[in-house]
Design a protein that fits this description.
This protein has 212 residues and is α/β, with parallel strands linked by helices. It has helices at 3-13, 19-31, 38-51, 65-72, 86-98, 113-116, 137-147, 173-187; strands at residues 55-59, 78-83, 106-110, 125-130, 148-157, 191-196, 202-207. A seven-stranded mixed beta sheet has the order 3-2-1-4-5-7-6, with helices on both faces. Strand 2 (78-83), helix 5 and strand 3 (106-110) form a beta-alpha-beta unit.
């Protein structure tokens, strides 16, 4: 086992996932919803705990794994979560109920991000999680930066998933989109970007106020 693989395994084995999130993970697997890893979820929870957000929006509900991790670190926040699959939202609702998350803290929206996000209020969220899938990641991030409040974070998980982005042979649609996103944010003066290798990788963006 390489040193990098050994470190990644050590990180995975040192994350304790709450029982309520582990149940949501099982539901996600049954639905084929592909939840974020526990290591990545723990990082999401750390970010929300450190930034103390009051309003979070999540693009890609799945069965509720990432949403539960986000709210674990932000007990006072409200979460707006969007998914095009009604079945996923139903499973997430059940997971949130089992975790005893008050219904007043969550707003559920069924629909495609391309249709929902243009209608959302600008600069209304402290945290924006973009995990909506293959067909709209670049557009979703663009909307995410518009929806985030000044100083707010836009988080894009899975950008290093499976090592595909780092492998030049891989040229599928999502891998290409992630490469484009990483290149654009690396070269942009309008955002501060940080790429974490934890779990499947997490790209973290903060918009920089333009100088007049």
């Amino acid at each position: 086992m390489s040193e990098q693989a050994a470190v990644a395994r050590f990180v995975r084995e040192n994350v304790v996932e709450p029982e309520s999130i582990a149940r949501a993970r099982q539901h996600a697997r049954e639905l084929g919803a592909n939840p974020v890893s526990a290591a990545l979820g723990a990082q999401l929870s750390f970010i929300t705990a450190a930034t103390a957000p009051s309003s979070i929006i999540e693009i890609g509900t799945g069965a509720g794994v990432s949403g539960l991790w986000l709210l674990r670190g932000a007990p006072g926040a409200t979460l707006t979560t969007i998914d095009k699959e009604a079945e996923h939202l139903g499973a997430a609702r059940e997971s949130f109920q089992q975790a005893r998350v008050p219904s007043s803290r969550v707003r559920w929206i069924t629909g495609r991000s391309s249709e929902v996000l243009p209608r959302m209020n600008e600069a209304a969220y402290d945290i924006v999680l973009v995990d909506g899938g293959t067909d709209s990641v670049l557009e979703d991030v663009e909307h995410g930066l518009r929806l985030a409040r000044p100083g707010g974070c836009v988080l894009i998980p899975r950008v290093l998933s499976g090592g595909r982005v780092a492998d030049p042979v891989q040229r599928d649609e999502l891998t290409t989109a992630y490469r484009t996103l990483l290149a654009e944010t690396r070269e942009s003066a309008s955002v501060i970007a940080s790429l974490s290798p934890a779990g499947e990788g997490l790209l973290q963006l903060v918009a920089v106020a333009s100088e007049e």
